[in-house]
Amino acid sequence: MDPASKEDNPISLELICFGEGHFEKHHITDLKQILPFLDQEHKFWLNISTLHNTELLNEIKGIFDIHSMALEDILNTQERPKVEVFDHFILVVVKMLYTRTDIADLETEQISIVFGKNYVISFQENSFDVFDGIRSRLENPFGKIRKHGTDYFAYTLLDSIVNEYYSILEKITNHIEILEEKIIHEDKKIKLGEIYTQRKSIQLLKKVIWPTRELLSTLKKTESFLIKRRTIPFINDIYEQTVQIMDNLEMQRESITTLVEIFMTNISLRQNDVMKTLTIIATIFIPLTFLAGVYGMNFENMPELRWEYGYWFTWSIFLGISILMVIYFKRKRWF
């Protein structure tokens, strides 16, 4: 994302405090408003959008005792997805994919998740995310998400991001199927660029999912008191989802290759049809051109030149030759 566009996005601090039988939601303007929640038995989620305010991030670093190396990873939006385990918190860096309009406008954004004993902090590049489902689940007083710890909540954030991968993959698959139908029916409006747009989306999705799969593999093997044993199966489930997405991406990549081959074959066939039509027309006109050339010679002793019916006789020869050649070509199935 362009740095200038980040500056245009105002910082949003969303605080949700939750637990069994407890739910509070606040849009705060000052980090000092977080302090009363630090010593409570309830858990809280602080969602921060836009990262251009380094002063604010340094303040967060001081409040939660976040290591400077972790803060560097959060600020570096080109960071590769990874997991870093510290003494009292775990940092997860992952890429979020989404599209606001069409699949051709696929966007990527880095999400950094820091979770400790009773808190989860998510850092976003902008205010758009895929966490609305989690916000709704938190409002449900009987939901599982309130009963489990911060490790489970971090899992739900990762799960929402991976589910969006599925959504994008489904859109890509639908576009490929539509393109396949149009190409098979020789829709001349289809351009090669439309196929390569889908290929580019597949490559971007693969580039994001591959390190995410390794991240999840590392996370489920992490030996930290912050990740409970009962959360491991949930993390493993997301890992299996990324494996399935990778397999589907390979299938779609092969489909794209097949579509390009079919597209190029259709172009070649259309060009052959055009060349065949032009060749037939040229072949029909060869004898006519010959006769026209003969009678175009300016010799005085050409008997047909002064014949009363010479003009009409010549036209009958032209038409007769043309009709005979068309019949011959039809019998040979040349068109």
TrEMBL record:
Record PANTHER family: CORA FAMILY METAL ION TRANSPORTER (EUROFUNG)
Pfam families on file: CorA (PF01544)
Catalytic reaction(s) noted: Mg(2+)(in) = Mg(2+)(out)
InterPro entries referenced in this protein's UniProt entry, alphabetically: CorA_cytoplasmic_dom, CorA_TM1_TM2, Mg/Co-transport_prot_CorA, MgTranspt_CorA/ZnTranspt_ZntB
Organism, scientific name: Cecembia rubra
Protein family (similarity comment): Belongs to the CorA metal ion transporter (MIT) (TC 1.A.35) family.
One GO CC annotation: plasma membrane
Major localisation: membrane
Gene behind this protein: corA
Transmembrane segments: 278-297, 309-329
Compartments it resides in: Cell membrane; Membrane
Summary of the function given for this chain in its UniProt record: Mediates influx of magnesium ions. Alternates between open and closed states. Activated by low cytoplasmic Mg(2+) levels. Inactive when cytoplasmic Mg(2+) levels are high.
Protein name, UniProt field: Magnesium transport protein CorA
Topology relative to the membrane: Multi-pass membrane protein
Keywords: Cell membrane, Ion transport, Magnesium, Membrane, Transmembrane, Transmembrane helix, Transport
